[in-house]
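From the pipeline queue, job 12 of 40. The input is one protein chain; the requested action is below.

Action: predict structure.
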Amino acid sequence: MTLTFAVVPTHNRPAELRQMLKSLGLPRDRVLVIDNASTPPVADVEAVVVRDEEQPPNLSRLWNIGLDWAHEQAAGEKYAVAVLNDDLVLPQGFMDAMVDALGRYGATIAYPDRSGRGTDWHNTEQGPVLMANRMTGYAFVLDGTANLRADERLRWWYGDDDLEWQAQALGGTVLVGGVTIEHLHHNTSTEQNPVLRAQTEVDEQEFIAKWGRSSWDYRPPAS
């Protein structure tokens, strides 16, 4: 049996957060909401809540807070943890589908596939996967036993790509078809905040310095 947890950073989206938690359907003690300086603070939600005041946020650090929490909660048991935005509406059975795919393919990370078809991406002989089909940063599920953590030098963007490329050197990643997610505010935070837009450019250069090429280069990184 695989224990399942979820990590949800949030900022000033109380209605969307409640809707997302309802669609997720995990017990309260299996979900960590990281309230990143919301006004008013997050309260009365079906999750454990911790407060983080850093602005602008370091999203990779917020993810790591949640990943460390899930690792503690699992207490040595086999587990998986979903990393989710606060503005998603998830289909029924989302976690079951992701965890099943991790097990069937021996993958380290599972992503929903926007094409709807799904593909065994961790088998790189099948070739590159179009970026347009990938739902990365706002919804993915990690195999907890891999003990992956986000690179906190990538403060706002590219942290998901970095995790993905780390995973390619382990069990790989898998795109799961037939899982349709509604994303209510796609890229809105970045588009409306010039500080975060500038941070994406810094993060891109940091990613290239680390891996030697852009995340838009589809070749899997050398292990």
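Job complete. Residues 137 and 160 are 5 Å apart (CA to CA).
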